[in-house]
Amino acid sequence: MKRLLITGAAGGVGRVMRSRLAHLAETIRVSDVAPLGDAAANEECIQCDLGDADAVDALISGCDGIVHLGGVSVEDTFEKINNANIVGLYNLYEAARAHGMPRILFASSNHVVGYYRQDEYLGTDARPKPDGLYGVSKCFGEALASMYHDKFGQETALVRIGSCFERPTNHRMLATWLSYNDFVALVERVFAAPKLGCPVIWGVSANDTAWWDNSAARYLGWTPKDNSAKFRAELEQSVERPDQGSPHAIWQGGVFTQDPIYKEDKS
Ligand code: NAI
Ligand code: 15L
Asked: 90, 116, 134, 148: which is the annotated catalytic residue?
């Protein structure tokens, strides 16, 4: 690619992907509403709010691919979620439509299915059961991408990320963990595939404990390699096992199921 856009580049995953995806394009355009720091040699930094349609239109102009990580990433007020994850998504897809429909990887979330139990094994066609307004906003994003694909041919990988962190830090993450290496490999496959379409993909490593079946996305040739099992013994020693009756141990979405409908700004 000539130019790859990474939104949410000041966030936890974005900060890592900013350097780890540098090989995918001649220029990496990084964006966030938060400060981005200095641009590296092959980077362009653009600070903007996803809720600002004109700014997003300018942001997408000239890009051949988009890794869309930007947005509210946990439960919050409807106003905040609406601006970043709903209006922001619409702005992104309209800008993409106006600028040659660059392929998009959309960071969806396991919280679109947070109200399935941990003893259920889901395919990519499982009916959404979101566990909060954040999860609902990711359902909106998936539906919007699907419509732009069917109506206009816009290609998007709908990656329902589990827990993308350096390592699993609680018992639930033994099933949901996605390593940075496996995520990088997935992004590579998404942009290398001759034909992508608009698949749902579970963004999860090859963990021994598994809730999600990725066989429908096998055509992409993505084979995650990391396994949370290597952290299990240490985690069992350092983190108390959750009570069997706690939401952390019952629901795939874990404690997100306990969030209220926030009315006050959390920050
Ligand atoms: P994060 O919260 O650390 O990063 C998100 C970034 O988006 C932040 O830097 C924030 O400033 C930016 N942002 C928020 N509102 C914005 C707006 N209105 N305009 C422009 N930028 C805005 O989240 P993280 O962990 O890096 O996740 C990245 C993406 O992956 C998010 O979309 C999140 O929902 C999704 N995801 C992450 C998971 C994980 O385990 N880290 C799991 C499932 C989904
Ligand atoms: C998410 O969707 C969040 O963005 C992330 O911060 C984690 O909480 C993750 O899900 C998870 O479920 O562990």
From this structure: 134
